[in-house]
Amino acid sequence: MKLDLRNVSVAADGTPIVHEADLLVADGEFVTLVGPNGCGKSTLLRAIYRALRPTAGLITVDGDDVHRLPARQAAQRTAVVAQETPADLDFTVSEIVRMGRTPYRADARADEELCARALDRVGLSGAAGRIFATLSGGEKQRVLLARALAQQTRLLLLDEPTSHLDIRHQLEILHLVRELGIATLAVLHDLNQATAFSDRLYVMSAGRIVAGGPPEQVLTPDLISQVYGVRAVHRTQLVFERLKEEQ
Ligand SMILES: Nc1ncnc2c1ncn2[C@@H]1O[C@H](COP(=O)(O)OP(=O)(O)OP(=O)(O)O)[C@@H](O)[C@H]1O
Asked: Domain named ABC transporter: which ranges (predicted)?
């Protein structure tokens, strides 16, 4: 699996937002996209998951132009946890997760097992029968990740997958996604977490990708001050690590 963006420009409602972006995610890589609010990260992701069509350039998954693939094939290759959660859904949690199986021919028993496992992985087995709309923001986010897992794709796109999560759930979800070993492109805001979890990282600013590479090489104090307008200082600080379950 390989996601390859070449010279991709994207507009939303006629406004050019992303300009000439090049980006790669290789098989099994965890790649992060960071950048200030409004710089175009979600817009770029939306072009990859076909909610927007690029105005120029090419986006391929495994060598095929994603915008020319039949919808079902595209959904078999790429799963998305988008930023906006569907608010007024009158579906149960297990119905939402089962939507991840839509691109495949139904096999009720196998699907049920897969979905149960996906819910278990995000720690929400107990919520299977709940109405999605009644969940907390963090629970919703984890259900949507379970749906993406149930989709069994080799590429995951995550737009701020931890924005509603407390620190323990943030770490759990990031570890979980990393351990899956699925090629992942994630938008994250926390630069420390991005550094800790990413194989490679891209920085976006004003619609352009301005740097890319291993996090510790890319996120220099200079670049951070140019892009975010803040001074970055290394300090000894409180570091959060997951407790192992048995502890
Ligand atoms: N339909 C639209 N019409 C006009 N402008 C839009 C449209 N959609 C998004 N934009 C603008 O494009 C810019 C980039 O938005 P985008 O959501 O991609 O940013 P982002 O980097 O994901 O931001 P954040 O970190 O705040 O989520 C913003 O200024 C936004 O207001």
From this structure: 3-231
Confidence of residue 240 (pLDDT cuts 50, 70, 90): confident
Number of domains the chain is built from: 1
Q: Provide the residue range defining the domain that includes 59.
A: 3-86+152-228
Average pLDDT (225-246) is: 81
Residues touching ligand 1 (Cβ under 6 Å) are 12-13, 15, 17, 35, 37-43
Condensed to tens digits (0 to 9), the pLDDT of residues 45-79 reads 999 999 999 999 999 999 999 999 999 999 999 99
Q: Which amino acid is at 61?
A: V
| 236 domain residue, yes or no | no
Position in ligand 1 atom list of the atom nearest CA 36: 25
Q: What pLDDT sits at residue 150?
A: 96
Question: 10 C-alpha vs ligand 1 centroid, how far in Å?
Answer: 11
Distance 236 CA to ligand 1 centre (A): 35
Q: How far is the CA of 59 from the centre of ligand 1 (A)?
A: 20
Query: Sign (positive/negative) of CA torsion 182, 68, 62, 186?
Result: negative
